[in-house]
Amino acid sequence: MEKIYVFDTTLRDGEQIPGACLNPREKLEIALQLARLNVDCIEAGFPISSPGDFEAVKGVAERVKGPTIVALARAVRKDVETAWEAIKKAERPRIHVFLGTSDVHIQKKFGLDRDKALERGLEALKLAKSLCPDVEYSTEDASRTDREYLARVVEQVIAAGATVVNIPDTVGYAVPQQFGRLIAYLMETVSNIDQVTLSVHCHNDLGLATANTLSALENGARQVECTMNGLGERAGNASLEEIVMAVRTRKDYFNFFTEVNTPEIMRTSNLVSRLMGMPVQANKAIVGANAFAHSSGIHQDGILKDRATYEIIRPEDLGIVEHEMVLTARSGRHALKDKLLKMGYDLNKDEFEVVYDHFLEVADKKKRVYDEDVDIIVQDVIFAHLDGSKLFSLESYSIKTGNGDAPEARVRLRRKEVILEASDQGDGPIDAIFKAIDKIVGAFHKLEDFQVKAVTETKEAMGVATVRVSREGHRALGRGSSTDILRASAKAYVEAINRIHYLLQRDSDTDQPENGLAL
Ligand code: MN
User: Fold this and answer.
1) Could you state, in order of their start, the residue ranges of all structural domains in the chain?
2) Is the CATH code 3.20.20.70 the one for domain 2-276?
């Protein structure tokens, strides 16, 4: 069996979703989980895009051991140098240079011709190679590129030292057989193709990203670029869990393997979904809530007689296990510390103390605290409360509501040492709370999305609220958790506002890449 290299780009392509701005601590936590999932490569970000992303990539490069850490760069000197600056301390660094190869990209985006574009790409690649031995080159929009030209580009970038050449279906235009033939054509035509790992990067605009990826593997590609839960630009990228489980479940057909530690899939999926505020659709392949729910009587009967009748994947292979009762209010510091270590959280002393306080609060109200609750506590406390961008925090709220009266909320926020207070009315209790918070902050925030979800399936479950707000052209996500959903919502709203403040401050000293990013 041949190995397929799994290149995860959740932290780069996945993070290009509008409003899914992860802070450096969150990126690090996802990267640590991706390392536990044992992917081969983690594309940590696009360091030139913002000082925040530079810091995040640097943090991942310095802390995450095991996978190759990749940083993206346009075929521009400053991008390549900045990418290297961010990842040079990684155990295994890789610079990923990309440049369009389709005529529409070359002419419309860059105003160049094919030869000039290739020259520019080679120049950037050689610079990258002089800094880092492992360099990946992406031929952006390859699926809409003239194939003779594409073959010429691939041959020359290999000659110039690329170690991985990636063939992206940037706009999700390819169909499986045709995309497979393109890969086969490159394998046959490019004389030095055996010197590199050929990679693919498929988008899901036509719902074909996984199919195109698998077709490419059958024709010679050996690296797959993918994201957790299929997140990414527009309709998203090929989904990691689908590719990995397709190869694993049908190894009789593909004769490939990956080194992904599949029992970590579910936890990775949950972490990414929560931190990025992107819920997973219930019928999503592999990780959807209904992926293993058999509801028809005929199926249930079959499953009871033998799971193999209607089940091709065992839930435990994805890490789906029955809730284990883990901790109670009587569990001490030691038990919690032990649990956190087992779950892979590496917290410092201050972080642990805050987590412990929050745990006691939750355990007081909920009799049993499950693994999922511990995940939420850690995410909520660490990410929201020890974030450097924090400006306001929720002190308390109270609400007066009842038959026919407009609900009225009174909210107290802390801003450094000062307690600020306001009250307001709204259409409902949450609306009233948000209005009161706006009053304190002195700015109006447009609420674009609001969700509350229970963490576990019991009545005493913790609720996690996610809000997306916008103000002055910035969008931000906030999360909050509590056994009380009004409190969770208020915390989420305050966190979103803190992030908007952070973005507004950052606004002035950042130059965004002018062409955007569509790899
Ligand atoms: Mn992409």
Assistant:
1) 2-276, 333-386, 392-506
2) yes
Q: Give the pTM.
A: 0.86
How many CB atoms sit inside 10 A of residue 489's CB?
26
Q: Cα of 170 to ligand 1 centre, how many Å?
A: 6
- Taking residues 477-503, report their average pLDDT: 89
Residue-wise pLDDT for 23-49, tens only, equals 888 899 999 999 999 999 999 999 999
Which residues touch 415 (CB under 8 Å, ≥6 apart)? 391, 392
Q: How far is the CA of 519 from the centre of ligand 1 (A)?
A: 4
* Residue 73 Cα to ligand 1 middle (Å): 13
| CA 329 to each of CA 189, 336, 370: distance values in angstroms, whole numbers, following the listed order | 66, 10, 12
pLDDT in tens, 349-405: 888 998 999 899 888 888 788 888 888 888 877 666 555 557 898 999 999 998 888
Domain 392-506 has CATH 3.30.160.270: yes
| Span from the CA of 57 to the centroid of ligand 1 (angstroms) | 18
In the reported structure, the alpha carbon of residue 311 is separated from the centroid of ligand 1 by a whole-number distance in angstroms of 32
